[in-house]
UniProtKB/TrEMBL annotation:
Source species, domain of life: Bacteria
Record keyword Disulfide bond present: no
Signal peptide limits: none
Organism: Staphylococcus warneri
GO CC list: plasma membrane
Chief place where the protein resides: membrane
Protein name: PTS EIIC type-3 domain-containing protein
Subcellular location: Cell membrane
Amino acid sequence: MKKLIAQIEKGKPFFEKLSRNIYLRAIRDGFISAMPVILFSSLFLLIAFVPNVFGFKWDKEMEGILMKPYNYTMGLVALLVAGTTAKSLTDSYNRKLESTNQINFISTMLASICGFLFLAADPAKEGGFLNAFLGTKGLLTAFISAFITVIVYNFFIKRDITIKMPKEVPPNISQVFKDIFPFSAVILILYGIDLTIRATIKTNVAEAVLKVFEPLFTAANGWIGITIIFGAFALFWFVGIHGPSIVEPAIAAITYANIEANFKLIQAGEHANNVITSGTQMFIVTMGGTGATEMVTQHTLINKMYLLDFNSICITIFIQFSRYKINGYFFDCT
């Protein structure tokens, strides 16, 4: 055991550095920023389908009314996360830049969202575009769009490759011209990636990325996968590292994608069989704290109470079995 702990301790500096990685933190913070959308949409999902458990079903028209808020929020979650992740990563880069030469996070959010549409949205026959990959299926692509956007912006702003306006021009107008070069570069780069992928494998980037990671998701989506993934939470905590900051960003895309997949299975009258979800994590794996902290604490307290009761019994027995001397005679209390 000591050798195992020693080996883990050797990797502690690496994992500490990993937990402070700005890209992993951007994914985590981007999800946290989008959490109100996820929670709001879940309420309508519960209203629409929980009554089914009790034998009551809404008619199709009412079900459509109830599901519209879900489809218009959770159905666009990747689009929103593309913006929130870009904002979080922009903040990290700005800490390294001079206070007088900062990246405009609003501009990076807009560029990331626009770029994500190039990578994930297919044109519809009637005009507009399809939204199949704007929800949880497009989360991985949303991260790619956000990362490329902020990296490109940092390249231009750090090297001062911008359009400079006279000091007399209002700051908000000056900022617009300052963002023209990096914004244009981001869109051209992401559009170029989109054209390349479509020309080579005849699909959009979001679907291509999903196909690449699908075998990994399938392999992890089981009880063995859960044991390894969530066991890592406790392992990192064991060596003094914040486990969720490392593991959660890596599994965020699959957990929320599985929620939508389970929802579709339930809609089709089948059983939800995807086990790696945020619900599994919050209400089974880490309920009461990582590593079942609450249960371990309760067990420890119960043991202490048992020991206190046992000690009190021993003291009572000791007193009762003592010998007393009264009027010159010894009396044995046994």
